[in-house]
Amino acid sequence: MAHDEGLAQILADDLSDHAEITSKKMFGGLCFLNHGHMLCGVHKSKDKTQDMAMFRVGPDHYESALKLDNVMELGFTGRPMKGLVETNSMVFEDDKLRSKLLEMALEFTNSLPPK
Length: 115
Prior knowledge:
Number of strands: 6
Radius of gyration: 13 Å
Number of helices: 3
Structural class: alpha+beta
Number of domains: 1
Largest sheet: 6 strands, antiparallel
CATH topology: Aspartate Aminotransferase, domain 1
Shape: globular
Mean pLDDT: 91
Distance between the termini: 29 Å
Low-confidence stretches: none
CATH architecture: Alpha-Beta Complex
CATH class: Alpha Beta
């Protein structure tokens, strides 16, 4: 399996109050979309040994997101993508961190025109 279903369910539960959220299998994992725009998701690390989460925080929140514990540049593409960060599975044990990253990602994707 490319991603952990239990971890995906945690994100789905966090986003359950947002009717416009959909999910789609992408990048070997599961992504959640806000009005058709990639918001966050779960995937395996590049070496397939760790469960990871990614968040599309946007360029305005990028630097502040990188300063949060266990948050790093998105790495599975082979090059940094400004506005996208990832974290290891610790984010699923840290409700405060996950909430902050989701808040950033929702703010950014809500600023985009619906697809």
